[in-house]
């Protein structure tokens, strides 16, 4: 299979990987043949890309480190909690004290079990994105990324649970923001941003009252926008005053946000998001946490179409985690843009004169450079 932008999707193509709705239900299953109507529906749903089946890449399998049913369980836990909150008049007290923590413990246990059973996939977490911009899937993505970092740091099972539950609930306070703010399709202005910043404290006040959710998980919600140099919010904490869990979730939150589409911009390329994070090392986030995070990110995801310096175009078919910038590429087009009769593979680790200059489908990505965070 290979990844294409929704603008490249054509009637007759077959879906290569399940597409989910924002609340975790299956929208289109593997093997469904696209029609013009289905493509238009995906576009309206905010889906900017999808995997399609292709006989030239049929053996390239893009696996998720967590099973679809695990993702669905996690998303449903968030959806159920959101509904409980929004349907409540006394927000913090009306949420089920017995059920809320249990829901997320079950969801995060399943996530951790799946991840520990797929150690190889942990080395390049490039396929967790559902290509859906929803809050629910973002929360699950951040939980998976955070758990991977925790594993690489040698966290115990109980620490991983605290971290992943905090990660999954890091944005739960947004549910209590004005609906018109959350539904806005343009960037927030300064006044709206100040209102939005309240989500950290709102979420913390909700979670700290839940007897079966760790206070450390609640502090992830409170502190995930704090930064080492004191430039974050809501308390302007510095250095070691920010819990490590919150720093990890902050890194994962930034990465997943940058590499996901927004109504006002396209997604950024993985390497641009990683470069931004490394630029933030030492003043926004701890260096060692960014390095631990980067071990799990393949700059060129399996299934993506890339362009070589020779002009050849191909699909990334294998990634060596020790050489994530030098994947193996299956060439489908020659340097003149013509389809090759028999696709061939180039291992960029051994072909040092070859390198990737970009993605073929630049329509999918924002080409505007990310402003490096200031060290001042």
TrEMBL record:
<dbReference type="GO" id="GO:0016787">
    <property type="term" value="F:hydrolase activity"/>
</dbReference>
<dbReference type="InterPro" id="IPR006675">
    <property type="entry name" value="HDIG_dom"/>
</dbReference>
<protein>
    <submittedName>
        <fullName>HD-GYP domain-containing protein</fullName>
        <ecNumber>3.1.4.-</ecNumber>
    </submittedName>
</protein>
<feature type="domain" description="HD-GYP">
    <location>
        <begin position="113"/>
        <end position="309"/>
    </location>
</feature>
<dbReference type="Pfam" id="PF13487">
    <property type="entry name" value="HD_5"/>
</dbReference>
<keyword id="KW-0378">Hydrolase</keyword>
<dbReference type="InterPro" id="IPR003607">
    <property type="entry name" value="HD/PDEase_dom"/>
</dbReference>
<dbReference type="InterPro" id="IPR037522">
    <property type="entry name" value="HD_GYP_dom"/>
</dbReference>
């Amino acid at each position: 299979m290979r990844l294409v932008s929704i603008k490249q999707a054509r009637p007759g193509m077959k879906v290569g990987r399940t597409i989910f709705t924002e609340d975790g239900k299956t929208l289109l299953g593997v093997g469904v043949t696209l029609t013009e109507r289905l493509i238009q529906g995906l576009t309206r749903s905010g889906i900017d890309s999808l995997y399609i089946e292709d006989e030239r890449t049929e053996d390239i399998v893009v696996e998720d480190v967590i099973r679809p049913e695990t993702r669905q369980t996690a998303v449903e836990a968030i959806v159920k909690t959101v509904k409980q909150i929004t349907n409540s008049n006394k927000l913090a007290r009306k949420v089920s004290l017995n059920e809320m923590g249990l829901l997320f413990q079950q969801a995060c246990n399943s996530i951790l079990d799946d991840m520990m059973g797929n150690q190889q996939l942990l080395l390049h977490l490039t396929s967790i994105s559902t290509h859906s911009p929803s809050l629910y899937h973002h929360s699950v993505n951040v939980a998976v990324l955070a758990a991977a970092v925790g594993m690489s740091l040698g966290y115990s099972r109980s620490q991983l649970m605290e971290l992943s539950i905090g990660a999954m609930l890091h944005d739960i306070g947004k549910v209590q923001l004005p609906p018109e703010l959350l539904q806005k399709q343009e960037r927030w202005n300064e006044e709206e941003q100040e209102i939005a910043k309240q989500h950290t404290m709102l979420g913390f006040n909700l979670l700290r009252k839940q007897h079966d959710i760790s206070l450390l998980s609640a502090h992830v919600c409170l502190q995930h926008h704090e930064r080492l140099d004191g430039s974050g919010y809501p308390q302007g904490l510095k250095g070691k005053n920010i819990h490590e869990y919150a720093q990890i979730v902050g890194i994962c939150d930034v990465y997943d946000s940058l590499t996901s589409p927004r109504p006002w911009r396209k997604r950024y390329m993985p390497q641009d998001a990683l470069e931004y994070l490394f630029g933030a090392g030492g003043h926004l986030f701890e260096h060692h946490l960014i390095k631990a995070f980067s071990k799990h990110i393949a700059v060129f995801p399996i299934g993506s179409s890339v362009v070589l310096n020779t002009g050849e175009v191909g699909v990334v078919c294998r990634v060596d985690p020790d050489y994530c910038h030098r994947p193996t590429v299956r060439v489908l087009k020659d340097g003149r843009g013509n389809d090759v009769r028999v696709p061939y593979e180039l291992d960029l680790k051994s072909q040092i004169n070859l390198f990737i200059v970009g993605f073929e489908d630049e329509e999918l990505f924002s080409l505007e450079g990310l402003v490096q965070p200031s060290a001042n």
